[in-house]
Amino acid sequence: MIPFDILPHLPFITAAIIRFILVITVSLHILLTKRNTSSAIGWIGICILMPAMGTILYLMFGINRVRRLARKLVDNSQLDTSGSNHASQWIHNPQGDLAPLAVMVRKLTDRPLTEHNKITCLHDGDNTYPLMLQAIADAEQSILICSYIFRNDKTGRDFIEKLSQAHKRGVQVRVLVDGIGSGYFLSPVYHRLRRAGVPCSRFMHSLLPWRMPFINLRNHRKILVVDGKIGFMGGLNIADENLVLQHPKEPVSDTHFQLEGPIVRQLAEVIATDWCFSTGEILKGDIYFKEHVADSNIAARIVTAGPDSDLEKIEFTMMQAVTLARKQVRIMTPYFLPGSRVLSELALAALRGVEVDIIIPQHSNHPLMDWACAANIGPALDAGVKVWLVKPPFNHSKLMVVDRKWTFAGSSNMDIRSLRLNFEINFESYDETLAGNVDDFMSKHKHIRLTHHHLDQRHNLIKIRDAAVRLFMPYL
């Protein structure tokens, strides 16, 4: 029997027991699953201070369900991985200082480095959209397209019209848009395509409360593959703002790439996997995946990253490339908020005499990112890293060149969100001509050098604001 003098306190005792059980249970899960020490300590601290709310927040945002789902799909053999290894004559092993990088990325991605590729660098929507729309208009068998932002403006409607026409003439069209970037509550493009009968899906989109953690995980990839033979990828979304020559209100300059050759199959496999992840439909057959060579001999490979089985692979590739650099590392990114590991590699490269240039916008389209960058960039400047500010229009390009020999470009920004949380795609190339062209393009944008003097001139209140925003780097 329960003593009568304890009965009035029973609710408080019960609540204390429940709080204790919650803290212990969640803390044990955190200890067993969180690799990052700071993250583990932070989550445990939140759960101790706020057991109920901390548990809810952890269940929503702390558990990587995407990685678990990816493993489940692979374990159940739901993903079609047949043909992922290309014919042996397309596997290329480079020589020289960067040969260890190619070996590392091969083991990291399980994708071969392929020869006989053609990669064309394109700038802004003015030059890129006509080529993409023409490829869609010429499609005979299949169109796979994925875009983080797909706006319902004139540019977006042009793409919708071409995709709808292709669908009507019997082309197998699949359109994947991000559940956040292309509209969370309202997604006009999604609904217009569906009304036209075009298969379209929103990646990781749900209004159900228990699926809300997915709002923090985004498919940031921009991919178009037509007939399995021609591909486009890079940083360019589908929106009027990218038509810089037409002087939109808030112009966004960007860099995209047209791909031909065996690398296109790797590109198609990525979007097919994302489509299966989102819809459960497995895409098979020659209409999606073709093996062919281009009239060029660029050695290239696709590198993907995301909070699933591809965790941190783009970041590891960048770090290894910086480690092997002998003369120069040049990076152009719209946002520069990498973690301490990448910052340390860049600083060490500069200290050993490598010329390290970071090229970022003078003002990006996200002021919070600029504020956090100002508070985070000091150690790089201390080590001799040169940081350059690009004058408007805002440049959204994501480019990296090492020693004018190796190019790394695609959708991934140089920030923690892109390197850890987003689903991203880059390509690596060992072609010196391509690397030289991309490097020259970046060099033209070295407008204003950022120094400690600029940072010291900030008012103390501004410094406090920037330092406070920096604490939220993983979620910006």
From TrEMBL:
InterPro entries (alphabetical): Cardiolipin_synthase, CLS_N, PLD-like_dom, PLipase_D/transphosphatidylase
Superkingdom assignment: Bacteria
Lineage summary: Bacteria, Pseudomonadati, Pseudomonadota, Alphaproteobacteria, Acetobacterales
Top EC category: transferase
Pfam family, any one: PLDc_N
Biological source species: Acetobacter thailandicus
EC number per UniProt: 2.7.8.-
NCBIfam families, per the entry: bac_cardiolipin
Gene3D superfamilies in alphabetical order: Endonuclease Chain A
Location, primary (coarse class): membrane
Stated role: Could be a virulence factor.
Subcellular location: Cell membrane; Secreted
Protein name in the entry: Cardiolipin synthase
Annotated membrane topology: Multi-pass membrane protein
SUPFAM superfamilies: Phospholipase D/nuclease (SSF56024)
Keywords per UniProt: Cell membrane, Lipid biosynthesis, Lipid metabolism, Membrane, Phospholipid biosynthesis, Phospholipid metabolism, Repeat, Secreted, Transferase, Transmembrane, Transmembrane helix
PLD phosphodiesterase domain segment(s): 215-242, 391-418
Stretches that traverse the bilayer: 12-33, 40-61
Gene: cls
